[in-house]
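Q: Please design a sequence for this.
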């Protein structure tokens, strides 16, 4: 997602420089730029956070904003709101920042303020089938939203997928702008191979790992030799529920091939997420179910129930069809588990829940996540 920001930034600067020099880019260029901004707006939660899916290095094309709490993604949307006259971009941007002023000039602030922006103008896409991302949720873009960003995407760009992570069928969850289930980020590129492998490996994401292997096989810091093929089998959204079904073949090369199929269903009235994992195989396999929480969450594991609390939001997690017990891990070095990296070369411990068991042949497991929140607190 961070490289989405960097590419948009390159395109924005080229577009603006071309425009002021009477060298306009094609209409298709502008359409693509607007669609890329639309994607950022769609996955951004009400706090302005964007899931840290894939690699990030924190680089900036230009560093013109020094405001406290400046947000690279909201800045892009502020610029885009003026360029494309988009009320929904303005609402997500919140304010007109210094970088946008430098790019567009002083008069652009008046144009930004003049854009009508009411809540009923929010109608962003939630299905990005070609890219493989789907947004499930309720009351999206309101202060008490529930937002689930699901990943049924290819491993990465082109054949080496340099900046991709082995995260097929993972998802993130935020409630009322508070992160609960997270993607842990990047941490390092060229140094500390153990940590490079961990942060882009399967165990660092909210999905399952089979027999201790990643879904895709690494060939170095910026290369993958074998890539899991991911498929969106179905996507439905209505007033009662949102539901994604996807599968991948990342474990098809095992001596006993395995297909992982996952159904993620959000029941809107009950504010409950039901995750159904089907592991299709013939013989015995070790299976890990890993769930990574924000470092701001207080997480406890008791018998078959996990509770995660942040501010006025509580998430209850159970696996009713499994006999294994949840284990709470935070900041473990060997083997690595339970870390988050918000910035390059920085990592901090974060609570991670892992369920581990051995299955014999095809197995089906349910994970139930119940959201309880006092939105008025």
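A: Design:
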């Amino acid at each position: 997602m961070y490289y989405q920001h960097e590419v948009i930034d390159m395109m924005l600067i080229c577009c603006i420089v071309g425009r002021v020099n009477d060298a306009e880019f094609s209409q298709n260029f502008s359409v693509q730029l607007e669609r890329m901004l639309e994607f950022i707006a769609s996955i951004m939660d009400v706090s302005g956070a964007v899931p840290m899916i894939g690699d990030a290095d924190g680089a900036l094309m230009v560093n013109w904003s020094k405001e406290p709490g400046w947000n690279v993604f909201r800045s892009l949307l502020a610029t885009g709101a003026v360029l494309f006259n988009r009320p929904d971009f303005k609402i997500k941007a919140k304010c007109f920042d210094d970088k946008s002023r430098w790019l567009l000039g002083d008069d652009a602030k008046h144009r930004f303020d003049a854009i009508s922006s009411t809540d009923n103008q929010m109608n962003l896409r939630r299905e990005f089938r070609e890219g493989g991302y789907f947004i499930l949720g309720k009351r999206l873009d309101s202060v008490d939203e529930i937002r689930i960003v699901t990943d049924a995407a290819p491993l990465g760009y082109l054949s080496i997928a340099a900046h991709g992570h082995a995260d097929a069928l993972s998802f993130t969850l935020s409630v009322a702008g508070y992160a609960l289930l997270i993607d842990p980020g990047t941490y390092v590129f060229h140094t500390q191979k153990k940590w490079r492998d961990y942060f882009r490996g399967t165990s660092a994401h909210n999905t399952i790992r089979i027999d201790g292997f990643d879904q895709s096989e690494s060939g170095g810091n910026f290369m993958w030799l074998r890539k899991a093929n991911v498929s969106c089998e179905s996507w439905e959204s209505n007033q009662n529920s949102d539901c994604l079904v996807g599968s991948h073949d990342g474990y098809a090369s095992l001596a006993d091939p395995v297909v992982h199929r996952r159904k993620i269903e959000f029941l809107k009235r009950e504010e409950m997420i039901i995750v159904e994992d089907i592991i299709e195989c013939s013989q015995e396999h070790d299976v890990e179910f890993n769930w990574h929480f924000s470092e701001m969450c207080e997480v406890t594991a008791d018998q078959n129930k996990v509770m995660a609390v942040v501010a006025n939001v509580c998430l209850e997690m159970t696996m009713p069809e499994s006999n294994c017990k949840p284990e709470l891990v935070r900041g473990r070095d060997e083997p690595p588990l339970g870390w988050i990296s918000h910035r390059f070369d920085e990592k901090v411990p974060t609570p991670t829940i892992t369920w581990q068991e051995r299955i014999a042949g095809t197995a089906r497991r349910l994970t139930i996540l119940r959201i309880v929140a006092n939105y008025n607190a």
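Q: Thanks. Anything notable?
A: The chain has two domains: 2-121, 127-373. Helices lie at 2-20, 27-43, 72-84, 87-93, 98-104, 107-114, 193-199.
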